[in-house]
Amino acid sequence: MAIRSRKTGKPAPRQMAPQGTLARAPKKAAERGIAAAQKSRTNGRPEPWVGRRYLRKEDPRLIQGISHYADDLRLPGMLHCVFVRSPHAYARIAGIHTGAARSSPGVVAVYTASDTKALGVVPCAGALPDLKIPRHPVLAEGHVRHVGEPVAAVIAEDLYQARDAAEKVQVEYDPLPAVVDPEKALAGTNFVHASVKSNQAFTHQLKNGDVDAAFSRADRVVKARFVNQRLAPVSMETRGVVAQYLPGEKTLTVWSSTQIPHLLKTQVALILGVPETHVRVVTPEVGGGFGSKLNVYREEAVVPFAAMQLGRPVKWSESRRENIAATIHGRDQINYVELALKKNGTILGMRARVISDLGAYHQLLTPIIPTLTALLISGCYKIGALQCDVVGVFTNKMATDAYRGAGRPEATYIIERMVDLAARELNLDPAEIRRRNFPKPREYPFATITGITYDSGNYENAMKKALELAGYSRLRARQKDAWKRGKYYGVGLSTYVEICAMGPSTAMPAGGWESGTVRVEPTGKITVLTGASPHGQGQETTFAQIVADIFGLTPDDVNIVHGDTAAVPYGIGTFGSRATAVGGTAMYIAAQKVKAKMAAIAAHLLGEKAAAMNFSAGRVGTKKKSLGFGEVVGAAYVARNLPPGVEPGLEATHFFEPSNFTFPFGTHVVSCEVDAETGHIRIDKYVAVDDCGNVINPLLVEGQIHGGIVQGVSQALFEEVIYNEDGQLVTGTLMDYSMPKAAQVPEFILERTCTPSPVNPMGVKGVGEAGTIASTPAVVNAVCDALRPLGITHIDMPLKPEKVWRAIQQARAAAAS
Amino acid sequence: MTKDIKIKINGVEHRASVEPRLLLVHFLREVAGLTGTHIGCETSLCGACTVMLEGRAVKSCTVLAVQADGASVTTVEGLAQSGALHPVQEGFWEEHGLQCGYCTPGMIMAAADLLEHSPAAAAGATPGDLEIREGLGGNICRCTGYQNIVAAVRSAARKMNRRKKAVAA
User: Fold this and answer.
1) Euclidean distance between CA atoms A680 and A678, whole angstroms
2) pLDDT score, position A16
3) Is residue A42 over pLDDT 70?
4) Boundary (domain end) residue, out of A656, A680, A705
5) Which of A625, A641, A656 is the last residue of a domain?
6) Where does a domain end: B33, B48, B78?
7) pLDDT for residue A27
8) B94/B118 same-domain check
């Protein structure tokens, strides 16, 4: 049988002909057992497929190990690339000696900046008025500015030879004092980029209402300083790039583990100076991204450059060390916040200063991320006046950029911690102070003090449901009892709102629309091309459910093709919880266009009105007269008897431009016990009530929330990228960077409320980041609540036992003196 | 310097002359062409490369190919038997125990080992959630938050026990 791409169902390009087991026929028989399970989940009834716990179409290839990630690709004559990277945080490059590497066995080429300096630079999409964008070359030029910065690329016949040779590249460094602390960096005279003559990369102010008046009217002002620590995204598949250049056809194909194949295609063309018409980007199976692959990286230019120079395919697979040192980081903010309050808990005003550690070079969205913090900083509350000042700071570290939530987790952490501190100051219940500041359901669309409009919401409803589900009053009783016994038990809330479905193009750096193409093939099967680029979210399943309902077919009749710029019209990609709300809507509208055409053809053949055509169970027509779906399709392609003015074929493309973002919300409740002797935190109960509008597949929504919560809990308790005072990365492996394990995280109790979005016809909002945004403050609120009897108001994340233990010791010592 | 070795992988013998430093995971992927076993860290911390060596789970990034000379290895590609998915594979599909799928082959192999060798499974009982969570302590998943992985393993354990009982009866 012909080898078919398991991802697209299309014949695999010849050069990708898989080897070994990859060439085996799919084990159809092996998958039959699941069909029965699928049937029971769908009650054996066809339609509607939307709303069901439909099992994923992606899974058979993944559970059998027969899909293709970038590192699984093999092309004839393929070479391997290994990068030589800076061991220093900041140094002048005095010389690079590549002779020994070049004569090492198997080495074909060694590239340094002297080979690549004519190429374009790594792009940044930020457009703030005073933004400084220092040159970001594809290989270090003159200086290295963070540990892991690539200095040279070694290309050899096999990976081991390339690694051997990389060790023989001698780089002479003159180390310079590193810029590490962002607050000191602002005042200092040691600059990361001498050309900029400042470490301040940009400033951004968001101001609305009379802030000074709000503070002078306040009964009480609550102040805090929070550190939102640097995190590593750590997708389980690291990055990977394979490139092939065909000199005859002048075509460059780049396979990259990315979330944005089309944007990457454009940028690769610009950096390398190749016509975009001759560049194709393909995303193979992508093993997670969490924002870290929403970028254009140096390696995505150097590997294709090498392939073009050498006329042979080149592969680079990122090692985990490289992944932690040279793939973007997330968060890393210091926040100074003040809240002006009335005695009854009403929030009159807010002041915030956001200091964002950007690292050494801007990646695609680096300066934009902290501006999203400002945009969401009022959370789900009515706040009378606001001033938020953001400053971006260069340091000798890897760039920060979009990591799951991207600026919104920081905002949610700020406001949800502040509201808790306010409740404590005013002796109000944390749920009650929130309730008093929520907009009422009739106030939607709700214009926030930050200048955006929340599409729909009912925050009180979600909170009420979460408190009931958690047994809030029982938890409070348990807390009282624990405190009496000298134990530390706490309850934490987070009532969050977030920004999804990114977004209207007016609010986005490079287009916020998405494309969708729906083609009914002559055989009656449906191919969907989507500009979204899922990498674990499961849109091959959910999009098929949506389209199956529109045409009265089954999800198995629909194949979702994504991540190939040669096949799919230009798209933006998958990030910012946008794939379903924006990409799904584009596809939905395209499908409606095709359906309308089929209805016209069917009505013509049946002598009925098009409006009377119903699509159900593989038939098109009325109850009395109908045609098989395939008969109508056949008529469209044979094209001998079409209604006047109707073109042959059955295909439509829609580019959907959303009118607004969507704003999912919810309440998470956490209870925990803190062991005062060890500082260990045990999460006792975790309840999440989320509202992401209408749901296509509850099974997948729950999966997104589970995974999101763990990333947020893990920020609260475990994870931290640490650079020491010399700018050395001391958490450079998974031995040092604390990833959550199965036994370290609790079981979650999930419920939903449903407030559809008015922004798109399906009423969907997005759910990819909600768990991460909501969970972090809920956990920290619970821990700080537990420690109230000791007078502890705040501990910065991650709440590692040692840190918690020290805070307890200090509090006890202070109380004793 | 190379060494001639043979390794039986999923019942098929593979012979090659390899450098002594070649990792088993690279033998599986590059020599045998079995790319279902993934590399996540190369330092035995993430478990993505877990395979069965002589019936027990090992991290194939920290085994040299020469150490496996003459041995028998099962990878995720060899888990399904006579056209039927392994109950652990079924469990992962039915309980939505995977999202991006990258950790999944290693996670499935570790879970299969756990269900074969855990005290509870040996006694014909279903391992408790904590035993499952601790049993998977060598494998990292970034997508699922583990809850559905635990459900998948629990479901597989029940299925395997039912089958064992059916065979015994």
Assistant:
1) 5
2) 33
3) no
4) A656
5) A656
6) B78
7) 45
8) yes
Q: Positive or negative CA dihedral for B78, B81, B84, B85?
A: negative
For chain A, give the mean pLDDT: 95
Q: Is B75 on the interface with A (CB under 8 A)?
A: yes
Cβ pair B77:A699 closer than 8 A: no
Query: Which residue matches tokens 């023989």?
Result: A168
Q: Quick check: A283 contacting B, CB < 8 Å? A: no
Q: What is the 3-state secondary structure (H, E, C) of A320-377?
A: HHHHHHHCCEEEEEEEEEEEEECCCCCEEEEEEEEEEEEECCCCCCCCCHHHHHHHHC
Which value does ipTM take for this structure? Answer: 0.98
Q: Residue A651, class by beta-carbon neighbours within 10 Å (0-12 exposed, 13-18 middle, 19+ buried)?
A: middle
For the cut 50, the answer to whether the pLDDT of residue A11 exceeds it is no
Considering the domain architecture, whether residues A638 and A686 belong to the same structural domain is answered as no
**pLDDT tens readout for residues B1-13:** 899 999 999 999 9
Please tell me whether residues B32 and B98 are part of one structural domain: no
Evaluate if residue B151 carries a pLDDT over 60. Answer: yes
Cis amide bond preceding A439, omega within 30? no
Q: Are residues B61 and B103 in the same domain?
A: no
Q: Is A17 on the interface with B (CB under 8 A)?
A: no
Q: Which residue of A has its CA nearest to B28?
A: A20
The model's pLDDT over A233-290, given as tens digits with 9 standing for 90+, comes to: 999 999 999 999 999 999 999 999 999 999 999 999 999 999 999 999 999 999 999 9
Nearest CA in chain A to B36: A65
SS3 B77: helix
CA distance A123 to A267: 7
Task: Read off the tokens for B64.
Answer: 């040299």
How far CA A123 is from CA of A134, A266, A386, A391, A510, in Å, comes to 11, 11, 32, 21, 12
**Chain-chain contact of A743 with B145 (C-beta, under 8 angstroms):** no
B103 plus B151 within the same structural domain: yes
Query: What CATH number does the domain containing A270 carry?
Result: 3.90.1170.50
From A585, A463, A568, A418, select the one nearest A512 (Cα to Cα).
Answer: A585
Q: For residue A689, tell me if it sits in a domain.
A: yes
Residue A22 has pLDDT above 80, yes or no: no
B92 and B19 in one domain?
no
Determine the average pLDDT of the residues in A150-167.
Answer: 98
Mutate to test the interface with A, among B143, B149, B150, B162 (most CBs of A within 10 A): B143
> A642 with A745, same domain?
no
Are B46 and B56 contacting, i.e. CB atoms less than 8 angstroms apart?
A: no
Range in A26-30, A425-429, A648-652, B84-88 the model is least confident about: A26-30
Is the alpha carbon torsion for B59, B60, B61, B64 positive or negative? Answer: positive
For B17-51, write each residue's pLDDT tens digit: 999 999 999 999 999 999 999 999 999 999 999 99
Task: Mark whether B109 and B157 lie in a shared domain.
Answer: yes
The average pLDDT across A757-779 equals 97
Burial (0-12, 13-18, 19+ Cβ within 10 Å), A647:
exposed
Q: Do A699 and B45 touch (CB under 8 A)?
A: no
Least CA distance to B150: which residue of chain A? A742
Domain count across chain B: 2
Confidence of residue B165 (pLDDT cuts 50, 70, 90): confident
Mean pLDDT of A206-226: 98
Q: What pLDDT sits at residue A34?
A: 65
Domain range for A259 = 79-178+234-326
Residue B96 belongs to domain with CATH number: 1.10.150.120
